[in-house]
Amino acid sequence: MTAMTDPSPQTLRRLPAFAAAQATTIYRRRIGAIEVTAISDGYVDLPHDIWKSPAPRALDDALHAAFLPTGGMRQGLTCYLVNTGRRLILMDGGAAGEFGEHFGELPQGLAAAGVAPEAIDLVLVSHLHPDHIGGLFRGTAAAFPKAHLLVDAAELAFWTSTHEQAQAVEIAQPWFDTARRWQAAWGERIETFSGERSLGEGLTIVPLPGHTVGHFGLMIESEGARLLIANDLVFHFAINFQNPDAAMIWETDSALAARTRRAALDRAATDRLLVAASHLPFPSFGHVERRGTAFAWAPEPWQHRAGA
């Protein structure tokens, strides 16, 4: 047997350098006759003080139990492209430069999916936090020049109000300025609505208030398959499922958010709904398990074929 020896420096120099980032991350999932593409926009590292409850020790316990580092959390962000066969609909626009330096990958993801900005027909804005609208404008111009946009009427009124801005927690006060710049860029192409709204082709906007006043999700139903894109209904898989009453400092109504979360998670568990949400680990598709009076997240195994 030949003894193994360390590779020479010359051999090591021929190896590729370690990568600093993953490849552009997209993931396609068929829901009946509709294709949904999850697109990663990046991530942000957040401290525990974004949570009003539970206490930091309980947060660390939950993170440790999930085999995650403690003392803070790294949160990803996923946007969703819905292809009905007739329309291309984008759910949220990512953060761009509005919420940390590690966001802004949506344009590369769309390019990897073969979709030009001009091809988007409709943009749905689940709520007006900067990590969901920062990528929807470039300076004074809309990022998707041929699309129109839907947002809840109360949501728009709230985030463009100087009165509400003055009452907001400090971290959220600049977000109102971001919302006004987004509004100016899109102008008359913004359409508002209230309550549940059918978009046709098996798509229905579902109100999920509390996180913000007009936060909503999207129910997709096609050929017997269903998917609820729940957006910010849950923020962290290790915290919000086992503790649906966990509260964040930037929620507009934490008590309502908790009631909405419990009701939606209960329905998802009862109906065995496929669920996706913006801040769950990419690609974010999975199911909700009932665990006593709380819940658990069951991520769906990777689907090697989008139509499988």
Order of helices and strands: HEEEHEEHEHEEEHHHEEEEEEHEEE
How many distinct beta strands? 18
Outline the low-pLDDT stretches.
none
Secondary structure category: alpha+beta
Amino- and carboxy-terminal Cα gap = 47 Å
Looking at this structure, what is the CATH superfamily?
Answer: Ribonuclease Z/Hydroxyacylglutathione hydrolase-like
- The dominant shape is globular
Strand numbers in spatial order across the main sheet: 1-2-4-5-6-9-10
How many individual domains? 1
CATH architecture: 4-Layer Sandwich
Give a verbal description of the structure.
The chain is of the alpha+beta class. The protein has helices at 9-13, 56-65, 106-112, 130-133, 153-159, 162-167, 173-186, 254-271, and strands at residues 26-31, 34-46, 51-53, 73-83, 88-91, 122-124, 137-138, 141-142, 148-152, 190-193, 197-200, 203-207, 216-222, 225-229, 247-248, 274-276, 286-291, 294-299. The protein contains eight helices and 18 strands. α3 (106-112) links the parallel β5 (88-91) and β6 (122-124). It has a single domain, classed as 4-Layer Sandwich (Metallo-beta-lactamase, Chain A). It is globular and about 70 Å long.
Keywords, please?
308 residues; alpha+beta; 5-stranded mixed sheet; globular; Metallo-beta-lactamase, Chain A; 7-stranded mixed sheet; 23% helix; 18 strands
